[in-house]
Design goal:
This protein is an alpha/beta fold. Among the domains are: 206 residues, Rossmann fold (3-Layer(aba) Sandwich), CATH 3.40.50.300; 33 residues, no CATH class. The protein is built from 19 helices and 15 strands. A hairpin with a 4-residue loop joins strand 5 and strand 6. The relative contact order is 0.13.
Length: 556
């Protein structure tokens, strides 16, 4: 559950700490005091859109931090998700923070680890559910009704739905395959000619995996050999040129000239150089004779690579992809050739898949109808307790038309039907329920689902809007009952809900000079009576305080 919420520089809240307890926590305050800001701050923790307009004037950023105690949580799915995200849970707490800067950017962290918004939303969805006016409107949307029904049905419906969707997926895959094969038949001759031509080209090329790399490597080796042969030939020419042009001929002439000199040492050195040069010249000549390359091989390699490049431009970016194209073309050609028999087999498969899908869908519908009877009965009882004693509530099942028979949720369009008064026919909920009735219907649904709901913290933002008197009192009792298995936070403007609370908080404005701040105060017993009195009569007269005390005692 939520144990601590710290808010800094958020709208008119400079700094506030909200520490709700288990059970029913009620937040009240004068109109305009900033009750909605508390819900907005929690919404930011849950992943709602961040805006720089949320930042308090003259501040650089807004910061919200929430601490959740999950030490006793039995939600293994949440723990597995956190573990998968690498988020540490060693102390049994989840600390979520969100910082919004002036540039509109926000940073979210869970237990100190920076997370993207999608992860923040996923994690918070396990922890908190906010019910506000938007959620009340949501029950007018028939697409949400099947979700609520299935939620009430629990594991049995989840299993049947998974089975139905598995069969539906197999059925759709078969239908798509039939369309593909039928499409092939429609253009079979032209396609067949193309495939035969392409396969012939690839077949004639006799490609091997890795061949292109081998050819490129051999081409580099030949280019290197050609370059080396050219250098050695040039060196041989320099050493052994025709006539007196060569270096050796010149050196031999010098050797003969130095024989006549008195400087015998110089002659010996020239003679030694002459013989070394002769040996070097012989080595170079040997190299020239050994280094060779076949120009025909080089031409053959270029021709082969040219063929491969041409095939690559048509059938794939590598030799392996070209060979893969060949295999696929072979299969497709076989399908075209045997299209009629393949199509016949697929149609048999489709019929079987359709039958299995229908069987799974009917099983899902049967279970939903059983669940709907129980849900309807429970909601009628809840509505009676919420001061709509003559309410009728049913779940409508309308079989979907053939053109959209198999839907993601089944073969029925499911919607809630409602009638508030005797003699009034059942109609779609959106056509009959008033604003106050819609809030109570949603509360009735929440009450029915609360036992199975794993979400530990439920927040109701002015659930009592549009109701008063006995209806408000019934809502208060209902929220108190829900708080038996959930932590409940409720923003209210009615005395009945404030009196029903186990923990009361007052949101008020503090004006100091030109600065306005919102303050959240936990109320003690006396302050609680004062607040309930204010909500009752707008005063703290002795008579009003006496009534407030009696109202509070009625919930003890």
């Amino acid at each position: 559950m939520l144990t601590r919420l710290e808010i800094n520089d958020f709208a008119v809240i400079s700094h506030a700490v909200f520490e709700p307890q288990g059970g029913l926590n009620v937040i009240s305050g004068e109109t305009g005091a900033g009750k909605s800001l508390l819900i907005d701050a929690i919404g930011l923790i849950l992943g709602s859109k961040a805006s720089k307009n949320l930042i308090r004037t003259e501040s650089d950023c807004a910061y919200v931090e929430a601490v959740f105690d999950i030490d006793e949580s039995q939600d293994e799915e949440l723990k597995a998700y956190l573990d998968g995200q690498g988020i540490d849970l060693s102390d049994g707490q989840i600390i979520i923070s969100r910082k919004v800067s002036r540039d509109g950017k926000s940073i979210a962290r869970i237990n100190g680890r920076t997370v993207v918004l999608s992860v923040l939303k996923d994690v918070s969805s396990y922890l908190v559910n906010i019910h506000g006016q938007h959620d009340t409107q949501r029950i007018f949307d028939p697409s949400s009704h099947v979700v609520l029904l299935d939620s009430f049905g629990g594991e049995k419906i989840r299993e049947l739905k998974d089975s139905y969707r598995k069969h539906l997926s197999e059925y759709k895959e078969t239908v798509l395959e039939i369309r593909r094969i039928t499409g092939l038949s429609d253009r079979s001759e032209a396609r067949k000619d193309y495939l035969l031509y392409a396969m012939g080209e690839i077949d004639n090329a006799s490609l091997r995996p890795g061949e292109e790399e081998e050819l490129n490597q051999r081409r580099k080796e030949i280019a290197l050999s050609r370059e080396e042969a050219s250098v050695y030939a040039e060196l041989d020419s320099l050493f052994n040129g025709d006539g007196t042009e060569g270096f050796r001929s010149s050196l031999e002439l010098i050797r003969h000239k130095t024989e006549k000199l008195a400087d015998k040492d110089l002659h010996k050195r020239i003679e030694s150089l002459f013989y070394d040069t002769a040996e070097l010249s012989s080595d170079i000549a040997s190299k020239v004779s050994k280094i060779s390359y076949d120009p025909n091989e080089e031409q053959s390699i270029e021709s082969r690579l040219g063929l491969i490049y041409d095939l690559k431009s048509k059938y794939g970016s590598t030799v392996e992809e070209i060979l893969g194209f060949y295999d696929n073309a072979s299969k497709e050609l076989e399908e075209i050739t045997n299209g009629a028999s393949v199509l016949a087999e697929l149609k048999k498969k489709r019929a079987a898949a359709e039958s299995e899908t229908l069987k799974a869908a009917e099983a899902l519908t049967d279970e939903r109808k059983k669940t709907a009877l129980i849900l309807s009965d429970r909601i009628r009882k809840e509505l009676s307790e919420l001061e709509i004693p003559d309410a009728r509530f049913e779940v409508s099942f309308r079989r979907r038309p053939k053109e959209r028979f198999f839907g993601a949720e089944g073969i029925d369009d499911i919607s809630f039907l409602f009638s508030a008064n005797p003699g009034q026919e059942l109609r779609d909920l959106s056509e009959t329920a008033s604003g106050g009735e819609a809030s109570r219907i949603m509360l009735a649904i929440k009450a029915v689902l609360s036992e199975a709901d794993k979400i530990p913290t439920l927040i109701f933002d002015e659930i009592d809007t549009g109701v008063s008197g006995k209806a408000s009192l019934s809502i208060a009792y209902k929220l108190r009952a829900i708080s038996g298995c959930h932590q409940v936070l409720c923003v209210t403007h009615t005395s009945q809900l404030a009196a029903a609370a186990e923990h009361n908080f007052l949101i008020s404005k503090d004006i100091a000079g030109d600065t306005t701040s919102t303050v959240i105060t936990a109320l003690d017993a006396d302050s609680r009576e004062q607040e309930v009195s204010r909500l009752l009569s707008g005063t703290s007269s002795e008579e009003s305080l006496t009534l407030a005390k009696k109202l509070i005692e009625s919930f003890v």
